[in-house]
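Troubleshooting log. The previous structure file for this entry was overwritten by mistake, so regenerating from the original sequence record. Sequence copied from the archived sheet and checked twice against the printout by T.R.
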Amino acid sequence: MQKPLSELNAFGDTKDFMKKLETNRIKLFWVPMMKAEKEKIKKAGEDEIRKAAKSTKETIENLYNKLDTSESMMGAMAKKVKQVVGEQKNKYDEILPK
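Regenerated output below.
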């Protein structure tokens, strides 16, 4: 059982009191603050990833559309290039929200 603050002596119980005070300060102040900061950083990172993925997807779609209308590339290799670019374009749907 804990002693009241008035009964603490300068040698033994003060150390325990200070430990508990520090523990409570960490639990009640630092831990919530660190969790909030972690979530803030995580959300900012996710937003940046989405922006980069959207930009990359748009670039690939533009390339795909140009390949689709281009007559300079023909034959089996052109079909394979278009197929691969089309597949890569669809991979970004997993990153971007619907």
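The CA atoms of residues 81 and 87 lie 10 Å apart. Archived copy saved in two places this time.
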